[in-house]
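User: Here's a structure from my thesis project, written as structure tokens. My advisor, Dr. K., wants to see whether a designed sequence matches the one we expressed. Can you design one independently, without my sequence as a hint?
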């Protein structure tokens, strides 16, 4: 059960029609006593399979005739076309949450089963090695005896392996479910000795190289630059973070190398590069309106998973267009978890160090170091505006009223001209979707983090299952302060471009300001520019 959202994935399925059986029972709340005011609230939620709404306002106890501890079964036939199935239960926002007893009134599921409907899988559904004949057993015994003759060679290999493992940092060995360990020599060969011609871009860690492993896989190898402000802790944080989460809208980590003083990360290679390169760069890749909308939706789903559905709650801290990569089908994947912040609900969300990119930083984080998942929501809102308008959030080459995208968006919104924000390169668009995205971006960039929606609610708004709440007043940080580009010497900065954006012609400033200095420096910078 969950307060708001439950999502299940089945990966590696053979394509075809499948029978999905869902079994429910209300087991948390007993049947209410007759003539009692102490009856619990309703558990009402929606059921989605493969993104399609199957049950609206589903109430387990109501379907069971008003009784608890009674089984309710639902059967569906679902097509699988991309080798995976997604089952999502989402709180409908109805009923009570804490009266008379506080508890989880969100979705709950007792059992899920998925089986082929009208075909026999050609992939065997059994453990490797099961059902072997006696002949196989005899062959196994013979092979085992033969292996005894190789003990000396195995002993040598074991000694070499032990020596290699001893060179790997003990902190890395302590990470649960760590990824594959590559040797430096293997990655050096894959990247042709880290040839400059294979550089894909400059990430927060340093250069990112395209490489080809010995098994034929094309990968992106991220190298930690010696001059980078990020160090060993951030390197291990990224490994631990990405190893703990798996989602189709998150970049996949194949492994790492920690030999010597040149730590390396090995990612899946995404041929269409980063979103900022597609939107602002010189490439000929054209993103039509439907693709841009699906990219925003995919990023929202990835963030919702990080914030609410993964085994550990994660704040990315550096959501921006250059950290969103596109695969061959233009599906978005969130990358660069080096700044990810893991936190516990029982602990304060005050960070001792502000890290991120100017233009995407929520005010409460930049000024006070107050870090929550709403920091990512703010940055997501900026990215949505960039995708809609097809331009950077700050562009000094434009007219004064258009330099800052968020301020310009508010000006058009207040004049009921928000549709003029759309990228002129778009040949067609869906007006309802466009207004929904613009309204959602303004809601996500609200000055108060409490007024920003959760990412699961953002997904619901994007899919049309929830209405986008209207924001009627411009944020105080736009009305009180006259913003100009704050890249003066008050900030210790590191120039960078995204992991695959060396051709985009865009550069940003990544802040690395200790909390004790950040709010004062930002405030001083604003005062110098004038109110």
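Assistant: Designed independently from the structure alone:
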């Amino acid at each position: 059960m969950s307060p708001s959202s439950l999502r299940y994935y089945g990966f590696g399925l053979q394509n075809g029609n499948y029978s999905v059986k869902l079994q429910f029972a209300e087991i948390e709340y007993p049947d209410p006593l007759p003539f009692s005011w102490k009856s619990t609230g309703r558990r009402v939620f929606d059921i989605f399979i493969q993104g399609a709404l199957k049950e609206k306002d589903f109430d387990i106890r109501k379907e069971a005739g008003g009784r608890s501890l009674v089984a309710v079964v639902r059967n569906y036939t679902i097509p699988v076309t991309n080798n995976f199935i997604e089952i999502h239960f989402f709180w409908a926002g109805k009923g009570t949450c804490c009266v008379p007893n506080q508890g989880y009134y969100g979705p709950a599921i007792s059992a899920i089963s998925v089986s082929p409907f009208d075909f026999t899988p050609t992939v065997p559904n059994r453990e490797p090695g099961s059902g072997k004949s006696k002949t196989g057993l005899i062959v196994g015994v013979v092979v085992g005896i033969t292996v005894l003759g190789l003990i000396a060679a195995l002993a040598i290999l074991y000694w070499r392996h032990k020596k290699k493992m001893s060179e790997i940092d003990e902190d890395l060995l302590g990470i649960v479910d760590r990824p594959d360990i590559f040797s430096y020599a293997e990655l050096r060969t894959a990247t042709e000795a880290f040839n400059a011609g294979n550089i894909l871009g400059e990430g927060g860690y340093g250069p990112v190289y395209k490489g080809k492993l010995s098994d034929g896989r094309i990968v992106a190898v991220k190298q930690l630059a010696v001059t980078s402000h990020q160090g060993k802790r951030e390197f291990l944080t990224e490994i631990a973070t990405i190893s703990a989460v798996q989602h189709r809208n998150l970049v996949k980590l194949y492994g790492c190398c920690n030999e010597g003083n040149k730590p390396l990360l090995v990612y899946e290679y995404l041929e269409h590069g980063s979103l900022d390169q597609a939107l602002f760069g010189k490439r000929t890749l054209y993103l039509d309106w439907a693709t841009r909308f699906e990219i925003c939706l995919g990023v929202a789903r990835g963030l919702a998973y990080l914030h609410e559905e993964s085994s550990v709650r994660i704040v990315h801290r550096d959501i921006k267009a250059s950290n969103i990569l596109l695969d061959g089908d233009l599906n978005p994947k969130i990358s660069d978890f080096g700044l990810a912040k893991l936190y516990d609900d029982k602990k304060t969300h005050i960070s001792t160090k502000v890290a991120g990119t100017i233009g995407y930083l929520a005010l409460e984080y930049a000024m006070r170091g107050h870090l929550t998942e709403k920091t990512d929501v703010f940055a997501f809102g900026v990215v949505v505006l960039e995708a809609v308008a097809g331009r950077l959030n700050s562009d000094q080459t434009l007219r004064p009223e258009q330099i800052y995208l968020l301020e310009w968006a508010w000006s058009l919104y207040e004049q009921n001209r928000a549709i003029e924000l759309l990228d002129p390169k778009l040949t067609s668009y869906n007006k309802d979707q466009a207004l929904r995205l613009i309204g959602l971006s303004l809601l996500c960039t609200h000055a108060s983090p409490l007024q920003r929606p959760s990412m699961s609610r953002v997904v619901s708004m994007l899919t049309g299952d929830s209405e986008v709440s209207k924001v009627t007043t411009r944020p105080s940080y736009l009305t009180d302060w006259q913003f100009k580009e704050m890249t003066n010497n008050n900030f210790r900065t590191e120039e960078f471009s995204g992991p695959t954006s060396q051709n985009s012609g865009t550069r940003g400033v990544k802040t690395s300001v200790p909390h004790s200095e950040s709010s004062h420096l930002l405030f001083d910078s604003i005062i110098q520019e004038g109110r």
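When you compare it with your expressed construct, this may help: The first strand starts at residue 5 and ends at 11.
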